[in-house]
Specification:
heterodimer, A: alpha/beta, Rossmann fold, six-stranded mixed beta sheet, three-stranded antiparallel beta sheet, B: Rossmann fold, 10 strands, cell division (chain B), GTP-binding (chain B)
Chain lengths: 337, 371
Amino acid sequence: NKVDYLEIYPVYTHAHGGSHSSGSGSTLLGYIGIDTIIEQMRKKTMKTGFDFNIMVVGHSGLGKSTLVNTLFKSQVSRKSAGWARDDKIPKTVDIKAVSHVLEEGGVKMKLTVVDTPGFGDQINNDNCWEPISKYINEQYEKFLKEEVNITRKKRIPDTRVHCCLYFISPTGHSLRQLDVEFMKRLSHSVNIIPVIAKADTMTIEERQDFKQRVRKELEMGGIEFYPQKEFDEDMEDKSDNDKIREAMPFAVVGSDKEYQVNGKRVLGRKTAWGIVEVENPNHCEFAQLRDFLIRSHLQDLKEVTHNIHYETYRAKRLNENGGLHPISSNDTQESNL
Amino acid sequence: MTSNIRYKSRIPVKTEENAEEKQYVGFATLPNQVHRKSVKKGFDFTLMVAGESGMGKSTLVNSLFLTDLYKDRKLLNAEERINQTVEIIKHTVDIEEKGVKLKLTIVDTPGFGDAVNNNECWKPITDYIDQQFEQYFRDESGLNRKNIQDNRVHCCLYFIPPFGHGLRPVDVEFMKALHEKVNIIPLIAKADCLTPNEIKKLKDRIREEIDKFGIKVYQFPECDSDEDEEFKQLDKELKECTPFAVIGSNTVVEARGQRVRGRLYPWGIVEVENQSHCDFVKLRNMLIRSHMHDLKDVTCDVHYENYRAQCIQEMTSKLAQDNRMESPIPILPLSTPDVETEKLIKMKDEELKRMQEMLNKMQQQMHDKDQ
């Protein structure tokens, strides 16, 4: 790959494959050691740890808390944090965030689960997405304020929602109107990953049919769920992501109880007619969701949030009011944002 | 809102067989995911070299990166150099090694310290560094931040001549002008003209003077407490060895049955990569193999942030003087035209100029005719 840079004088560019010197006199091969920068970065990532914020949306009873607990193999949802199961359905959608620090293989993660109780539970659910949209934008605003500050923190605390799991009710028929309205409005400000909840109420065939219908409806509604086609960076990404997009929305089952199956302890749901194994790919697509969400696209979710959704928000804000007032850390005045 | 409970995965797993173990979630793969993205994107690094002519700067750069960046260079003689001012020349090279791509930019400063009167000869250099900060600041504050090019100088190797008795006034002034703008790594150049004792004395002297004059050279970060003893020992040795006494070479000689980079003298062969001959290997390891990332971080987190804070303070105080505190202060110039628009504007400007000239000519002709 040749790159040409023209400054005051012509400059010399060399394409190196391996580390051969292409100078006329020198034929000494050797190892410079540039690849070690990867190791330097890795050490840094391990030391600083990272944040990940996941939001769950869907009406009550779809197993949102259980699924999140199953994904992260820990009691991380709001309900497990000791908050009493609400007796009354809240009148408006609540936003409740709970954080935990998880550690695995030397990597520390501060996981924040944002729950949205009350979504879709009312008789009249008009605009029930507004508190959610407001929360997402508030996190962008918080980050923007930090970025614009005169003395900035070295690592700005990241509370922006990196991923929104949207739970589709396993009716077997089609998406509900609320599902379409929500996803349409929010897919441009946050990464939405739709999942089909409580998939064990459908047979494999029913699931496939339902999925096809849901995907068609998502397409017709112009809903770009994550991974969005327009953000595929290269052919490799595109082919990986195409496979995932074909298989979405994943039909999942969650559970935090263990049972003995064939001599192994597995997470599952015990029914009179058998045990549904959560991590068995023949039973449901939980393992696929987990691998996709955590093991391969975790970093990408954060990057798309930062480089695309956040930048969109920021550009919008900068265009309003003709600009932002730079805030100093000891400025007690309300900024005119 | 938050409750912080620490959960430790009971089994620290890395291998595939353990991947399906009960407690393994899988986010430990995050460093690998970051790795994949970084390898795809590649890295960049900007290194500045400063010092008088003939200190062996070009040779050292060639030795460090195994390239030949200066093969067509024409050296000027003393007369030609009389009216030369300090210039800034950039060379860019793409290097790939084991799949990792590095875009290396070397910023050269020919003319530094070469004149008779070297007053403020560092000014073009500090201006250049500030310009890069300013460019980055504008880009960062702009609307389209997707492809910001980072041209900020990550490190400056400063070459101290071995012939004197420590730092000269120009060395002190240069380093003081730059130590809060860039990571300075002072080097003793052409160290093969000194004996080991002389080198030791010179290093001690220089370290003393750096302290005395309050020069803030690049500090190696502290070792992690959980690093092994061997690493800590190496780190300690590295720190005690500064400033590094280096030798570079563009030629290959035969020494001890091997072909090595070196310099052939009647009394022996100096090997560049021999640790008992000079500190080249230490410099290379530190610069490339262990601290490249940290140099970039310090540039971003310290030097750039200082520049930015200062810039904003100046902007706000200037506007306060102009008595316009009521209106919101734009943190970015109201419109940052991109390269294309700038080009267009320039073209139009030139066209206008030409038309104006033609008009003037015609007017002149008509005037002459009338006469």
